[in-house]
Give the backbone structure.
Amino acid sequence: MAMQEIVDAVLAFDQAKTVRLVEAALDHGTAATTILQDGLIGAMDEVGRRYSEGLFFVPEMLMAAEAMKAGLGVLRPRLSAPEVTPAGTVVIGTVKGDQHDIGKNLVAMMLECAGFKVINLGVDVAPNRFIAMAKRHDALIIAMSALLTTTLPVMQATVASVKRDGGGFKTMVGGAPVTQALADKIGADGYSPDAAGAVTIARDLASR
């Protein structure tokens, strides 16, 4: 079965069809890793391209991610074998004092769709919790979001705490009031203004 059919189903936001095609591909003997990489991740890479070109917007990204996750649900039991290695683990959350999570959840979904193991800590996450969970899950990256300008100092304090801890975790930051200049100022390792770009940044950080 051509992986392009799975890609097209995800791009059409068709969860049921995506599930059927993934099941059919498995029945035909296609390796789960091939379906993941060429079908599902391939589809989300195309979603990211369309978003960057202004062809897709946040609603389309969310719908495509939901279709991809439906297919991933079929694959996940087959992807637990020892030879299947995730791209890395990302601990993600909204910083202490901030209750906004729509953008952060979209980033988490896109990272999972790109092959990362994602530990979503939710909102109002204190610096020590980010670090503790990163250690517990042997994470490569701590990603944090802030939507309120009043919580930007908390983001800065969290990045500083991660660096002081010495765990070697890379930090990614994002959110409406966050800019590249701010990310540079507070010492974050990566910044993206959108979910598609966050995947690119995470892949770069994980490869270092």
